[in-house]
Design goal:
Layout: H1 3-17, H2 48-58, H3 68-73, H4 76-92, E1 99-102, E2 108-113, E3 117-119, E4 122-133, E5 136-146, E6 152-158
Antiparallel strand pairs: 1-2, 2-4, 3-4, 4-5, 5-6
């Protein structure tokens, strides 16, 4: 007897044990239990556009971006246009390319920004915001940094 015959006999016997002489076999199937999928809750993160819009609305020229004397004579439309120009100049402006705005009754302005500088893990930029109201120029220079929320805040300013 060869050495493979010793191993083949028990395997053949096991294989034949599953067959029946009548030609029918029944296989019992165990019930299948499917676990429900886990519910994963994730915080709803705002899109980039939503974050930008929220930051634009909360970056206010009244927080040191414009000379207070100019703020006192600016209309609501002037302030809205100046806010928008200030935010978009800081967020997307090219250094040295002023962003112009126009408000009510001939009130105009421009915002010029410098290059991005990294300070304490925040993006910061120098800015100059010029407002012309009733023929008089008001100039505010400073440095603003973008917070983690996307809001820009003046960290240093001079009239």
């Amino acid at each position: 007897m060869n050495r493979f015959a010793l191993f083949a006999t028990p395997i053949l016997a096991l294989a034949l044990a599953g067959c029946s002489s009548t030609g029918t076999s029944q296989v019992a199937q165990a019930p299948v239990v499917v676990a429900p999928a886990p519910v994963v809750t994730q915080p709803i993160m705002p899109s980039t556009a939503q974050t930008t819009q929220q930051a634009r609305l909360t970056t206010s020229i009244s927080n040191g971006f414009v000379d207070p004397a100019a703020l006192a004579v600016m209309t609501a439309k002037d302030s809205n246009e100046a806010n928008s120009a200030q935010f978009y100049a800081l967020q997307f402006g090219r250094p040295g390319a002023p962003r112009q705005w126009a408000g009510d009754k001939g009130t105009t302005g421009s915002v010029a920004v410098g290059p991005y500088v990294r300070v304490n893990n925040l993006d910061c930029r120098d800015f100059t915001h010029t407002v012309k109201v009733n023929g008089q120029d008001y100039v505010k220079k400073g440095t603003a940094c973008r917070e983690q929320t996307g809001n820009w805040n003046v960290v240093q300013g001079a009239a």
